[in-house]
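Hello Y.,

Per our agreement to keep a running log of every chain we model this quarter, I'm adding this entry. I've kept the format consistent with earlier entries: sequence first, then predicted structure.
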Amino acid sequence: MQIELGKQIKALRRRDGRTQEDLANALNVTAQAVSRWEKGICYPDMALMPSMANYFGVSIDELFGYNNEREKKVEALVNKITDMNRQNNGEDVNIEECISLARDALVEFPGNEKIMLCLATVLYNAGYARYGERHYDDAEGYDVYDVKAHKTYAEWKEAITLYEKLINSLEDDQLRHKAVSELAQLYLNTGEYQKAVSLAQKVPDIYGCREFLMFKSCDGRKKVELYGETLLKMTAITAEMMVDTASMMSSRIDPESMVEYIKNAIGLFDAVCTDGEYGLYRFTVALMYLYLSTHQWRCGDKDGAFESLERARVQTERYSEFSEDGKMEYTLPLLEGVKINPAGVKCNVPSALPDIWPWICIPDYSDVQKEMSMDPRWDRWVLKCKKAL
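Predicted structure for the entry above:
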């Protein structure tokens, strides 16, 4: 690395349009000394390093050429922890190991924002995997979060502290968006409603989002293609919002109406995708069929329930054919708190369906699970799904 120091000094000097004499004057040394440094004949006194780094506006690590190696190691650690965290798909598989790795990484790279965000996300997921997102019906029959219970989750308390620190310092737009999104959910879970509102008000409205602004970057055929992609994405979000809203009012809506509500949400895709090709959103449709099956069973439509399960399996099979690597990454916002990893899941499809079913766990589905699992068709459906492994 010392050999590279001379090259780095020369590169930074030329970057800034400075002469060897300029640098020498700033450091109170001779121009000949600077020349010898750059040729690798000798090296600067270590006491000069802070002043030289300040002169070029870089860190000492960057001055020595360490920065790229440092960033590579940080990225490798973050990717490793993130991949491990995805295994905690609704249950605690390796949460403690993920937390320990992230804490050790912060010791090695103190204050690194990417690692801090990684730790916050692991802690965010830990609350769901270890204790679950708790709900109950209020006096009017609406589903609400069990704020009192959620406030006892030490993992969520620490995650909130980390997120609050990060949103004030993160410059990377994508990372900041992730921090804001996850923090908003934790504010909701723990009853900090005003903080959630305040956070939301600082974010651009829907017309200021990336997808809408992209329309202004092109015209002609490309613009039409972007409209189609955005329309499909908005359809997926709208359909999920419909189902999520229905689930929160499940105690106020009769099972037959719930079935119609979910069918209408699925119907949005058919209205937009007239050819029946949902692309990457086949998995979204499959999830809705899973949830639909529970309410069809409650209505006594047992055949319909298993037809929905089969439709979910077929959609995920088609998704696997559509996906290049047979994997799926699914991170739409309304997956928070359901039986899928809220930090984003990556798993084989459709073999994951029996474990994911019924997608949304509101209302309590344990009675349906017990009854459906006793039907011979359940085992046949599970076997079909697992054959994808």
